[in-house]
Design goal:
Elements lengths: L13 H30 L5 H7 L14 H25 L6 H27 L1 H5 L3 H15 L2 H9 L12
Helix pairs in contact: 1-3, 1-6, 1-7, 2-3, 4-6
Length: about 170
Amino acid sequence: MRRHQPRKRFAVPRLWLLLAGLESGVIAGGVALLYWILASTLRGDGPWAVLNLWGSVFFPGRPLSPGFSQASLSGAALHLLLSGLVGLLCSFLLVKYVARPGRSLFVGLLLGLAWYLASFRWLWPLFSVALVVYQPFPAMLVGYLLFGVSLGLYPEFVRRLGMTRAPERESPFL
Protein backbone atom coordinates (compact mmCIF):
# COMPACT_ATOMS: atom_id res chain seq x y z
CA MET A 1 0.00 0.00 0.00
CA ARG A 2 1.32 3.37 -0.98
CA ARG A 3 1.36 6.14 1.58
CA HIS A 4 0.43 9.66 0.70
CA GLN A 5 3.60 11.72 0.67
CA PRO A 6 3.24 15.37 1.66
CA ARG A 7 4.16 17.78 -1.11
CA LYS A 8 7.51 19.42 -0.67
CA ARG A 9 7.46 23.17 -0.81
CA PHE A 10 10.13 25.16 -2.49
CA ALA A 11 11.72 27.20 0.29
CA VAL A 12 11.89 30.90 -0.48
CA PRO A 13 15.30 32.38 0.42
CA ARG A 14 15.30 35.21 2.95
CA LEU A 15 16.76 37.65 0.45
CA TRP A 16 13.78 37.03 -1.82
CA LEU A 17 11.44 37.73 1.09
CA LEU A 18 13.14 41.07 1.63
CA LEU A 19 13.05 41.88 -2.07
CA ALA A 20 9.35 41.00 -2.17
CA GLY A 21 8.84 43.46 0.70
CA LEU A 22 10.77 46.13 -1.19
CA GLU A 23 8.72 45.46 -4.32
CA SER A 24 5.39 45.59 -2.50
CA GLY A 25 6.44 48.81 -0.75
CA VAL A 26 7.35 50.55 -4.00
CA ILE A 27 4.14 49.37 -5.67
CA ALA A 28 2.11 50.52 -2.66
CA GLY A 29 3.89 53.89 -2.80
CA GLY A 30 3.02 54.15 -6.48
CA VAL A 31 -0.65 53.45 -5.71
CA ALA A 32 -0.63 56.21 -3.09
CA LEU A 33 1.07 58.64 -5.52
CA LEU A 34 -1.51 57.92 -8.22
CA TYR A 35 -4.30 58.53 -5.73
CA TRP A 36 -2.75 61.83 -4.62
CA ILE A 37 -2.35 62.99 -8.23
CA LEU A 38 -6.00 62.16 -8.90
CA ALA A 39 -7.19 63.81 -5.67
CA SER A 40 -5.13 66.96 -6.36
CA THR A 41 -6.56 67.20 -9.85
CA LEU A 42 -10.12 66.78 -8.62
CA ARG A 43 -9.52 69.37 -5.90
CA GLY A 44 -8.27 71.84 -8.52
CA ASP A 45 -4.73 72.23 -7.19
CA GLY A 46 -3.00 70.74 -10.20
CA PRO A 47 -1.83 67.16 -10.48
CA TRP A 48 1.68 67.79 -9.10
CA ALA A 49 0.73 69.71 -5.94
CA VAL A 50 1.28 66.83 -3.52
CA LEU A 51 4.50 65.80 -5.25
CA ASN A 52 5.75 69.37 -4.86
CA LEU A 53 4.93 69.16 -1.15
CA TRP A 54 7.07 66.02 -0.93
CA GLY A 55 9.76 67.82 -2.89
CA SER A 56 9.77 70.67 -0.38
CA VAL A 57 12.23 68.55 1.61
CA PHE A 58 14.85 69.32 -1.06
CA PHE A 59 13.43 72.56 -2.52
CA PRO A 60 11.95 74.53 0.40
CA GLY A 61 10.97 77.51 -1.74
CA ARG A 62 8.46 75.67 -3.96
CA PRO A 63 6.03 73.69 -1.82
CA LEU A 64 2.86 75.16 -3.32
CA SER A 65 3.74 75.46 -7.00
CA PRO A 66 1.19 73.58 -9.14
CA GLY A 67 3.51 72.89 -12.10
CA PHE A 68 5.82 69.96 -12.72
CA SER A 69 9.44 70.71 -11.79
CA GLN A 70 12.51 69.20 -10.18
CA ALA A 71 10.68 69.43 -6.87
CA SER A 72 7.93 67.15 -8.23
CA LEU A 73 10.40 64.59 -9.48
CA SER A 74 12.45 64.61 -6.29
CA GLY A 75 9.26 64.41 -4.21
CA ALA A 76 8.09 61.34 -6.11
CA ALA A 77 11.53 59.76 -5.78
CA LEU A 78 11.65 60.47 -2.05
CA HIS A 79 8.21 59.00 -1.50
CA LEU A 80 8.96 55.86 -3.51
CA LEU A 81 12.28 55.40 -1.71
CA LEU A 82 10.65 55.69 1.70
CA SER A 83 7.79 53.44 0.60
CA GLY A 84 10.27 50.78 -0.47
CA LEU A 85 12.09 51.01 2.85
CA VAL A 86 8.82 50.78 4.78
CA GLY A 87 7.85 47.76 2.66
CA LEU A 88 11.22 46.20 3.42
CA LEU A 89 10.74 46.71 7.16
CA CYS A 90 7.12 45.57 7.09
CA SER A 91 8.09 42.37 5.31
CA PHE A 92 9.32 41.11 8.69
CA LEU A 93 5.85 41.72 10.15
CA LEU A 94 3.78 40.45 7.22
CA VAL A 95 5.69 37.24 6.50
CA LYS A 96 3.69 35.57 9.28
CA TYR A 97 0.49 36.13 7.30
CA VAL A 98 1.53 34.45 4.05
CA ALA A 99 -1.07 31.73 4.60
CA ARG A 100 -3.81 34.24 5.53
CA PRO A 101 -4.03 37.05 2.99
CA GLY A 102 -7.19 38.55 4.55
CA ARG A 103 -5.39 39.23 7.78
CA SER A 104 -2.40 40.66 5.98
CA LEU A 105 -4.66 43.26 4.32
CA PHE A 106 -5.94 44.30 7.73
CA VAL A 107 -2.44 44.39 9.23
CA GLY A 108 -1.28 46.36 6.17
CA LEU A 109 -4.08 48.86 6.73
CA LEU A 110 -2.97 49.29 10.34
CA LEU A 111 0.65 49.67 9.22
CA GLY A 112 -0.38 52.37 6.74
CA LEU A 113 -2.20 54.25 9.48
CA ALA A 114 0.77 53.87 11.83
CA TRP A 115 3.16 55.12 9.12
CA TYR A 116 0.93 58.17 8.53
CA LEU A 117 0.80 59.00 12.23
CA ALA A 118 4.52 58.43 12.80
CA SER A 119 5.67 60.36 9.77
CA PHE A 120 3.45 63.40 10.26
CA ARG A 121 3.97 63.47 14.01
CA TRP A 122 7.75 62.94 14.21
CA LEU A 123 9.49 62.63 10.84
CA TRP A 124 8.17 65.44 8.65
CA PRO A 125 8.23 68.21 11.27
CA LEU A 126 12.01 67.70 11.35
CA PHE A 127 12.57 67.89 7.60
CA SER A 128 9.70 69.80 5.99
CA VAL A 129 7.22 71.79 8.01
CA ALA A 130 5.48 72.79 4.77
CA LEU A 131 4.53 69.17 4.15
CA VAL A 132 2.86 69.00 7.54
CA VAL A 133 1.15 72.39 7.33
CA TYR A 134 -0.09 72.28 3.72
CA GLN A 135 -0.98 68.61 3.45
CA PRO A 136 -4.46 67.98 2.04
CA PHE A 137 -5.65 66.18 5.15
CA PRO A 138 -8.34 63.75 4.08
CA ALA A 139 -6.59 62.93 0.79
CA MET A 140 -3.23 62.38 2.47
CA LEU A 141 -4.72 60.04 5.07
CA VAL A 142 -6.64 58.07 2.43
CA GLY A 143 -3.44 57.78 0.38
CA TYR A 144 -1.62 56.31 3.36
CA LEU A 145 -4.48 53.89 3.99
CA LEU A 146 -4.33 52.80 0.34
CA PHE A 147 -0.59 52.42 0.81
CA GLY A 148 -1.22 50.12 3.77
CA VAL A 149 -3.81 48.00 1.96
CA SER A 150 -1.50 47.67 -1.03
CA LEU A 151 1.33 46.76 1.32
CA GLY A 152 -0.92 44.04 2.70
CA LEU A 153 -0.61 42.29 -0.66
CA TYR A 154 2.93 41.29 0.33
CA PRO A 155 1.98 37.62 0.95
CA GLU A 156 0.82 37.40 -2.66
CA PHE A 157 4.30 38.43 -3.83
CA VAL A 158 5.84 35.80 -1.54
CA ARG A 159 3.40 33.16 -2.73
CA ARG A 160 4.38 33.84 -6.32
CA LEU A 161 8.03 33.46 -5.38
CA GLY A 162 7.31 30.11 -3.75
CA MET A 163 5.71 28.76 -6.90
CA THR A 164 8.89 29.12 -8.89
CA ARG A 165 11.21 26.21 -9.20
CA ALA A 166 14.94 26.19 -8.75
CA PRO A 167 16.67 26.35 -12.13
CA GLU A 168 17.88 23.01 -13.37
CA ARG A 169 21.37 22.47 -14.65
CA GLU A 170 21.80 22.16 -18.36
CA SER A 171 24.65 19.71 -18.08
CA PRO A 172 25.64 17.32 -15.29
CA PHE A 173 29.27 18.40 -15.73
CA LEU A 174 28.71 22.03 -14.64
